Each structure stands twice: as C-alpha cells, then as structure tokens.
C-alpha cells in the first residue's frame, strides 16, 4: 500500500531523463545477484525436473527415459520406506519441538530476573551446527555414555538409544530439537509479548485459573504464530540429514533412512543422478504442499 | 544453507510489560528456578564437550568420573594436525567470502528493487522470493552436475558460488532500503551524484544495522553448512570443518581429541552469538528469518 503511494508520488516527479536512466542503472545494480539467481536458482529448478526424466549417470552419459524414474519411485520399497520414516520422524520431531519451544517461551515470558541470560542459554544450541550436535549427542547416547551412566546410577539401563529400531527416531528427534527449538522459541516469545496484559488481567478478575487463561486467551491469540512455527518445523523435519549422517548412517537396518538420505545415497553412493533428481522433485513437491497449506491458513487467519 | 518459506506473521511487539500469569508484581521464584534448570540442561551438552576436550587422553574422565586434571594438549594437538588447520582455513574462506559477496550483491539488488523504477520490478522481486520454496536438498543434484561439468569439484569457487543466490538477503535489503526516508536519496539526486557514489556513500552506511544482522546469518549458515560441502569437496584438503568433523568419527581419533575439534569449530559461532546477540534475537522476532 505505502509502496504504491510512494511509487505514484515519484512518478509525477519523474522526468524523461530519469525514466530511461532508472531501468539502466537498475539493471547494472541487479546484474550480479540476477546472474547468480538465473544460474543457481532458476536453472537448477528446471534442471532438476529435466534430469528426473533422464538416466544421467556420473561421467555425463544420458538418455531421455520419460517418466521411468517416477514409476520406479512409486514401486521402490526403499524410497517408500524412507518416506514413511521421514513422516514418522516428523510426527515425533514437530510436536516435541513446538511444545518445548512454547513451554520455554512461556517460562521466559513469566520471568523477569535474568531473562536475557536464560534466553541466551536456551538459544545457544541454535548457532551451532547439526554435525556438532550429532557428535556430542552420539557420545552421550553411547551404551557406556553419559546418559546410560546416569540411568545406571538410577538403577536402570543401559538403553541402546541409537541401536534399537524403535528408539532411534525419537533419539534423533531429541538432538534436532535441542539444536533447533531456540528459533521457534524466540518467534513464540515475540508472539506472547504481543498479547495485551489487560486481557489476562480481566480474565483473572473474572476468576479464570492459569489453565483457563492459557486455553481461552493465550492459545487462540497465539494461533497464527503457532501455525507458522509448526510449518517451519515440519519443513525442517523433512530436510533432516546431517545428524543422521553423523549419528546412525541411516541405521540400524534403515530405521533412520530418511528421504534426503535416500536422495544423497542415490546421487553420491550409486551415482544415479537421474533417479536422485527425481527424489529431489518429490521432496520439493512435499514441501510445496506444506507451504501452500501454510499460506492458506495464514490468509484465512488475516481475513478473519 | 537452510531455505525455508519464511513469512512470519506480523507480531506487533507491545511494550514488554510486566510478567503475566502470576499474582502480584513480584518475581515468581518457582518459575525462575524451573527456567534456570531448563537452561542448565540445555547448555549441559556444551559443558560435557568442553570437559571432555580438556581431559587428558590417558586419564579417566566422563562418564566414569569428573576428571581430576585438565590439559590443553588435545586442542594444541588438533592445531598441529595439518588436516584440521586446513579445514578451518577452508571454512573461514567459505564463510567470509560468502558473507562479503552476499552482502554486497544483495545490497545492490535491494537498492535497485526499492529505489529504481523499471518494468517488471515487483515480478522480479517475487520470483526471487518464490525460490525460497525450493529446498536446497532438491537442488543438490543439478548443482553438482552443473559445477562438476564446469570443473568446480574440489575448488573454492565451486564450493562458494552456488550458495550465494540468497533470496532472504535480497528481500530484507529491499525492505530496509525502501523504508529509508526519501529525502536522503533526493538530496543525492539534486547534487547530481553518480550512482556508485549514492550506493557507497548513502545506501551502504545507512543499511549498517541490517547488514550486520544479515552478515551474522550468512556467516552461521555457511560455517555450519554440511550437505553441499560434503558432496563438492571430495579431497581431504578441500573439506570444511563440519565435513572434516564428520569424517573423524571413523578415523582413529580419541573422544577427547574429537571433542577438542568440535569445541574449536564452535568457538567462532559462540563468539559471534555473544557479541551480536541483540541483532540476532531482534531480527528473528521481527522478520522470522531462518
């Protein structure tokens, strides 16, 4: 809106000289980034789709094979399993991360003393790499590692966090949550701060207890922010790779073999670039659907 | 290199206000204690990492017992290992060069997209932003095919160049420059200052806050990036720290040495974080940038 007003105002002032001057200097200023985008964003998108219709192998020999890669994908048990594993992982990771982020955001919001220090501590893992997180937690998860030692003192364990098929996905999800929740926490914290105190005061005067205030006031007002956080964490869950590469290598017996891991394997273990590109297109479509759902819900939210 | 759709819902930051959800205006000590415990648990893995890094290789340390002596040997030994120094150098080059180029090109593009009028301006901006919906993992294969055909495997340019097209950077620069007061640009125009001077003497100095914020993010993205360096750096000499660290697991490296390397690799991130924490936190809460 303001953009439009400003543009209009400038148009009336614009002289003929400027009218030709602007596009040329704009092109010069845009050229470096535009070139980068054409080469490394626009072209690869088409390249990705194009490659998925070929059997491009390492060395550069290729034939167009039509939709063969796609029919192969739908009958490829390894791919279907990896999709299922990714969904399971997301089903564990997303609620875990959002709940931890919301709980810590609410704690931060209700504490004044030392708030900046606590916020810094909680956010700290976010600035590190997934590789680092994976290395530390792999050590903590070992059979004779830190967590099992603590369990030992408590008289239980040892637990094979990364060795048991039923535990490996939750264990990996904990690592990614630890590394990533700080970001969502800050978004939710900003959302909480924007809720007018007067609403909560009024509810308190009316006799609403803490749970009722949370249920009836905080949660509804936080809905758009919550939705945003759920979507970005879902997208993050579908992109998981680094921690798995470092901690399990997709194991045990492919129990943590996710979609991106399958893509990496097809490309850089089997050098089947055509098929790997097809998996990339599948990943893109899944994430696109999630993004579109986000857009829809957010639009509805702002219409209301 | 995390590309996600990020359009954070507007959240008007009301005055911080007094803490809510408890009686009176006093500090809620049980909640503070709980928050302290949660914060402590969050930083505990770092504490373990540092303890392990400082434990002598031949001594008994965690998890059996709290180490009774400390040493810097592991850290100095990693710095004497040529591979590790090389990985660190590569990572510094990868991050710093990327930050400089992204900031400069994004500022230029943001200036053109906000202060110049030309047909198709909005369409171009949104076509940049639309690329955020494509996850980098989906472009891994075309990137590799392209770069390897251009002879970019195991080169710095092959590592760096594909990661520079940064839509979030362009978008934020454009928003920021658009919202600057018109008068600043009008004055330069009246003076008849050449374009490059307007850019270097008006645009760049005025955009310092957003350049700082973006700089931190681009630095962290590149420093912590893993998948692209993993596939494009095939020789040991071209590895970045993340790829190098991941390769150490199978090699003959003791846990204290591994943790010492991990510790060294994270120091720059933690320094950046502590020095520029305010920029980082504010930008996340305001723009929803990832």
UniProtKB/TrEMBL annotation, chain A:
Main location: membrane
Gene3D superfamilies for this protein: MetI-like
SUPFAM superfamilies the record matches: MalF N-terminal region-like, MetI-like
Pfam families xrefs: BPD_transp_1 (PF00528)
Keywords of the record: Cell membrane, Membrane, Transmembrane, Transmembrane helix, Transport
Organism: Haloactinopolyspora alba
Residues annotated as transmembrane: 20-43, 87-108, 120-140, 221-241, 273-293
Protein name: Carbohydrate ABC transporter membrane protein 1 (CUT1 family)
Membrane topology: Multi-pass membrane protein
Claim: Cytoplasm is one of the keywords in the record: no
PROSITE patterns in UniProt: ABC_TM1 (PS50928)
All residue ranges annotated as the ABC transmembrane type-1 domain in the record: 83-294
Any single GO BP term: transmembrane transport
Coiled-coil ranges per UniProt: none
One Gene Ontology cellular component annotation held by this UniProt entry: plasma membrane
Keyword Transmembrane among record annotations: yes
UniProt similarity note: Belongs to the binding-protein-dependent transport system permease family.
From TrEMBL, chain B:
Top-rank taxon, per record: Bacteria
Annotated membrane topology: Multi-pass membrane protein
Transmembrane regions: 28-54, 92-113, 125-144, 156-177, 198-221, 258-281
Gene Ontology biological process terms, A to Z: transmembrane transport
Alphabetical list of Pfam families matching this protein: BPD_transp_1
PROSITE patterns linked: ABC_TM1
Domain ABC transmembrane type-1 positions: 88-276
Annotated compartments: Cell membrane
Keyword Cell membrane assigned: yes
Principal cellular location given in the protein's record: membrane
Compositionally biased residues, Low complexity: 1-16
Stretches the record annotates as Disordered: 1-24
GO CC annotation, single: plasma membrane
Keywords tagged on the record: Cell membrane, Membrane, Transmembrane, Transmembrane helix, Transport
Family: Belongs to the binding-protein-dependent transport system permease family.
Xref: PANTHER family: ABC TRANSPORTER PERMEASE PROTEIN MG189-RELATED (PTHR43744:SF12), ABC TRANSPORTER PERMEASE PROTEIN MG189-RELATED-RELATED (PTHR43744)
Name of the molecule in the record: Carbohydrate ABC transporter membrane protein 2 (CUT1 family)
């Amino acid at each position: 809106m303001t953009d439009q007003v400003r543009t209009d105002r400038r148009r009336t002032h614009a002289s003929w000289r400027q009218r030709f001057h602007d596009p040329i200097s704009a092109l010069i200023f845009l050229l470096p980034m535009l070139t980068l985008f054409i080469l490394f964003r626009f072209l690869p998108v088409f390249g990705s789709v194009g490659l998925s219709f070929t059997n491009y192998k390492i060395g550069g020999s290729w034939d167009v094979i039509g939709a063969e890669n796609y029919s192969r994908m739908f009958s490829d048990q390894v791919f279907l399993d990896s999709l299922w594993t990714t969904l399971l992982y997301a089903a564990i990771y997303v609620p875990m991360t959002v709940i931890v982020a919301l709980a810590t955001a609410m704690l931060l919001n209700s504490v004044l003393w030392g708030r900046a220090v606590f916020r810094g501590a909680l956010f700290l893992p976010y600035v590190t790499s997934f590789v680092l997180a994976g290395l530390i937690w792999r050590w903590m998860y070992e059979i004779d590692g830190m967590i099992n030692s603590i369990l030992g003192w408590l008289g239980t364990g040892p637990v094979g966090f990364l060795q048991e098929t039923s535990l490996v996905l939750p264990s990996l999800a904990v690592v990614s949550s630890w590394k990533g929740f700080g970001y969502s926490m800050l978004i939710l914290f900003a959302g909480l701060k924007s809720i007018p105190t007067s609403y909560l005061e009024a509810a308190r005067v009316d006799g609403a207890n803490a749970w009722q205030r949370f249920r009836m006031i905080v949660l509804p007002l936080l809905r758009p922010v919550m939705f945003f956080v759920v979507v970005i964490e879902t997208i993050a869950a579908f992109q998981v790779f680094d921690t798995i590469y470092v901690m399990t290598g997709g194991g045990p017996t492919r129990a943590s073999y996710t979609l991106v891991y399958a893509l990496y394997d097809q490309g850089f273990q089997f050098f089947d670039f055509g098929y790997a590109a097809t998996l990339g297109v599948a990943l893109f479509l899944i994430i696109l659907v999630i993004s579109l759902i986000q857009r829809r819900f957010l639009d509805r939210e702002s219409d209301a | 290199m995390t590309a996600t759709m990020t359009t954070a819902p507007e959240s008007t930051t009301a005055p911080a206000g007094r803490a809510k959800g408890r009686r009176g205006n006093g500090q809620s000590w049980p909640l503070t204690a709980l928050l302290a415990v949660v914060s402590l648990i969050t930083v505990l893995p770092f504490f373990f990492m540092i303890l392990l890094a400082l434990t002598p290789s031949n001594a008994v340390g965690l998890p059996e017992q709290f180490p009774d002596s400390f040493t810097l040997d592991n850290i100095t030994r990693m710095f004497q290992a040529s591979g590790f120094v090389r990985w660190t150098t590569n990572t510094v080059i990868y991050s710093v060069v990327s930050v400089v180029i992204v900031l400069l090109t994004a500022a230029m593009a943001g200036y053109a997209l906000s202060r110049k009028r030309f047909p198709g301006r909005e369409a171009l901006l949104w076509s940049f932003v639309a690329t955020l919906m494509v996850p980098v993992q989906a472009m891994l294969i075309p990137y590799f095919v392209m770069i390897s055909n251009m002879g970019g495997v195991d080169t710095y340019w092959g590592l760096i160049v594909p990661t520079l097209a940064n839509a979030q950077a362009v978008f934020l620069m454009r928003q920021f420059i658009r919202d600057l007061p018109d008068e600043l640009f009008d004055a330069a125009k009246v003076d008849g200052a050449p374009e490059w001077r307007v850019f270097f003497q008006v645009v760049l100095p005025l955009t310092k806050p957003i350049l700082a914020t973006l700089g931190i993010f681009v630095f962290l993205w590149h420093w912590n990036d893993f998948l692209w360096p993993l596939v494009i750096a095939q020789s040991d000499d071209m590895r970045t720290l993340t790829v190098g660290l991941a390769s150490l697991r199978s090699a003959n490296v003791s846990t204290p040495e591994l943790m010492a390397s991990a510790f060294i690799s994270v120091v720059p991130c933690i320094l950046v974080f502590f020095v520029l924490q305010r920029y980082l936190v504010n930008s996340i809460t305001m723009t929803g940038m990832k």
